[in-house]
């Protein structure tokens, strides 16, 4: 007779995502995962596969959450407001503890893991396309200056956003980050 799962796989996956996000792949042991997810070792392997498979599912879960957030942000009154809201997400309380999971994966795992590198690249392309659409929309609705090339503004936004995410992880003062965000947004005039 098959045993009924005594845990919610979605909740367990979210817990694994949080652990990988905060500690990184290498520093998170299978035992840490078993304890943090509240599952038995056998259940972990039966449900998620090995540590790497679980990690990739956690990365995909993070990407899903980011894409859901982007869809919500896109509904802002103006494209400029949407861009500010997206970039200001780095100021979410406790974000400084973890930074951006994709930046963490890009620097820790992707250089030697083609599967992780592919996921990071895929998400970065989608993010760039999303920001490019916002810039173009902003130039049409008048909330973003129309003299600069949309591609150039997008490149600046992507790189500034990534830099902010690294700054958050390294503990840069929130006041400094707010000022930096204001300066980045002013470049859209």
UniProtKB/TrEMBL annotation:
Keyword Transcription regulation: yes
UniProt DNA-binding region: 29-48
Kinase in keyword set: no
Residue ranges of every copy of the HTH tetR-type domain listed in the record: 6-66
Keywords: DNA-binding, Transcription, Transcription regulation
InterPro entries: Homeodomain-like_sf, HTH_TetR, Tet_transcr_reg_TetR-rel_C_sf, TetR_C
A Pfam family this chain is assigned to: TetR_N
Name of the protein in its database record: Bacterial transcriptional repressor c-terminal
Organism: Kibdelosporangium persicum
Source species taxonomy: Bacteria, Bacillati, Actinomycetota, Actinomycetes, Pseudonocardiales
